[in-house]
Amino acid sequence: MATLSPPHSPLVSCIIIFLNEAQFLEAAIESVMEQTYPNWELLLVDDGSTDASPELAQRYAAQYPDQIRYLTHPQRQNLGMSASRNLGIQQARGKYISYLDGDDVWVPHKLADQVGLLEQYPEAALLDCPLLAWHSWTGNPEDQDLLYGAGDSGQHPYGDRLVPPPRLLCLFLEDEQFVPSGGLIRRDVLLEVGGGETDFRDSYEDAVVWVKVCLNWPVYIANQCWYWYRIHPNSCERTAYQRGLAESKRLKYLRWVAQYLRRQAVQEADVWRSLRFALWRARWIWFKAQIKRQLPRTWGGAYSRAAHEDG
């Protein structure tokens, strides 16, 4: 891994967005402060929290004013994840930007390793990597961690190399496990693509940005994992599945991709082929989920009527 001397250590803007994360926010902040890479700033973006997390964030900002800032939307509104990250991007000063959710953590050498790689590959707009689905934080023996985004072999198909556009976009569309998380992106590229789409308030907010980037820029894919994604009952992913919204959110994202590709006049047959496959599969999964949810009600009603008639 490339090692950078202090004069060649560009500023990294770390953006933590949070909404009612009093239980986990301190661990997320501390994982930034424990980075071996020294040249960072931390933007704590409050998306309208009503618990104790704003006070915690403000306390860190007051204690470390040279490196940590606390940001909110006007009137402390809840505007969603994309709008909150966009606020962080607007206020960021670094050459690079990295996202961290308020309930997740980084490993200590995350920034040092990733900055070293992007400095080594200046043509790359973005560095992406696998993430650890962190179940074991509970301390329960049955909660086992899973490596997500590395494929069945434990190695990314394009791992440890530069991937030209739009090859990586096809992989993102076809296989949901290759999710964009825990990476590092050049701030000028983020500004050029316009940041996130505010319609994506609580899911796929990072994926839409990655689509814009992977369509037009090379991306460096690393096999190493630096990001621990905490799995808990109130996480966005778990909540979407519990509410039966995961399938419809996936469809919304893929339909946005189709519209974006049309606006960009994309002609590459491989991209459209991958998108058609992803849409077909997402519709099928959505249809099966609807049938599964309707069956208990249908069979339950039929059973009640039959029991009443037999009685």
From TrEMBL:
Alphabetized Pfam families for the sequence: Glycos_transf_2
Presence of the UniProt keyword Transferase in the record: yes
Keyword annotations of the record: Glycosyltransferase, Transferase
Presence of the UniProt keyword Magnesium in the record: no
Glycosyltransferase 2-like domain mapped to chain residues: 13-127
A single MF term (Gene Ontology): glycosyltransferase activity
InterPro entries xrefs: Glyco_trans_2-like (IPR001173), Glycosyltransf_2 (IPR050834), Nucleotide-diphossugar_trans (IPR029044)
Highest rank taxon of the organism: Bacteria
Family statement: Belongs to the glycosyltransferase 2 family.
Name of the protein described by the UniProt record: Glycosyltransferase family 2 protein
Organism expressing this protein natively: Lyngbya confervoides BDU141951
